Amino acid sequence: MSSAESARNLEAFLDDHSALKQTPLHALHLSLAGKMVPFAGYDMPVQYPAGVLKEHLHTRAAAGLFDVSHMGQVRITAASGTYEDAAVALEALVPVDILGLKPCRQRYGFFTADNGGILDDLMIANRGDHLFVVVNASCKKADLAHMQANMPGCSVTLFDDRALLALQGPRAEAVLAELWPDVTTMKFMDVRDATILDAECIVSRSGYSGEDGFEISVPADKAEALAKALLDHPDCQPIGLGARDSLRLEAGLCLYGNDIDATTSPIEASLEWAIQKVRRSGGERAGGYPGAARVEEDLQSGPVRRRVGLKPEGKAPVRAHAALFAEDSPESPIGEVTSGTFGPTAEGPVAMGYVPASLSAPGTRVFAEVRGKYLPLTVTALPFITPTYKR
């Protein structure tokens, strides 16, 4: 390679790096020696000096603090100023009961496409006179445009002046209670306003680790002070994207773009639990959202394929995109692994993927092709760990 080519490559790398966005906690990550990597257009910490394994186990045993400020935080307000009108407008885009969501509560949902596939999954909160929605970082631009184009009579605003922290683990309540004692009265999926260190926050008792925990929306200029105060607690450590991925996989939780996407129906993805009876066939507000016909068909007749847990035999993880084969038909793939890693709490490799519905029963044996070899896996019920949400 010539010196001119090297210079051009270096210039391109620097341009790509400079194009990455930074969260309000970027300087803190660097001060904590976080290993930074590009993720969803942001410069994000994948791990800290402790390493992914120790970060994972610490979160399961105590409390871990994650920077999830790259996620999109959206406010939806109806022109009428009523929650009901905003809820009805959003129900035209999701197969979820938003109108029946009680104040100060939130629930999981997803945008569906005309083909019944999933455009994104999201958290939806009833804030009394408006909706507060958190969407995935990689989808937030498209999600914002989707809502603005398809929710007439509503104002849809993306907050770009707020950070989002996730505090997860069995000691999360004790850590946050040092700064905000009222947290002890919250239950899973509650949402509250909170003044923490003079910052006006929105706190939900939720997360994506399978553990009890909280997500804290905080003004960007107050985020570092709050993060430092939480990390000052001896039970709390910073956690990167690497452990976040292994934690959510052990908990059987989907990662958009890997386990669900615009080709995947909610029923194929085993997410029918998120579609309340009132939005199903025969319900008071059935249908009325994109792809309702396919979703209802899958609900009534069963999908062709299903997302399942997969437990590889041995110690070698089976990674995403590995082809899956039936025991009696090794020549033709029957599905694919969508997520796979080593599960520190499960004490072995864990994975998720799609198989034909006829092969989705726990205990079914399938094989994954890894570097030319066929490794056996057992279809397993999800999650791989017992969640510890405070009900």
From TrEMBL:
InterPro entries: GcvT (IPR006223), GcvT/YgfZ/DmdA (IPR028896), GcvT/YgfZ_C (IPR029043), GcvT_C (IPR013977), GCVT_N (IPR006222), TrmE/GcvT-like (IPR027266). Residues 305-384 form the Aminomethyltransferase C-terminal domain. Signal peptide: none annotated. It comes from the Bacteria. It is an enzyme of class 2 (transferase). Substrate binds at residue 215. Keywords: Aminotransferase, Methyltransferase, Transferase. GO terms for biological process: glycine catabolic process; methylation. It catalyses: N(6)-[(R)-S(8)-aminomethyldihydrolipoyl]-L-lysyl-[protein] + (6S)-5,6,7,8-tetrahydrofolate = N(6)-[(R)-dihydrolipoyl]-L-lysyl-[protein] + (6R)-5,10-methylene-5,6,7,8-tetrahydrofolate + NH4(+). GO terms for cellular component: glycine cleavage complex. Residues 25-277 form the GCVT N-terminal domain. One of its GO terms (molecular function) is methyltransferase activity. Its EC number is 2.1.2.10. Belongs to the GcvT family. PANTHER family: AMINOMETHYLTRANSFERASE, AMINOMETHYLTRANSFERASE, MITOCHONDRIAL. This is aminomethyltransferase. The gene is gcvT.
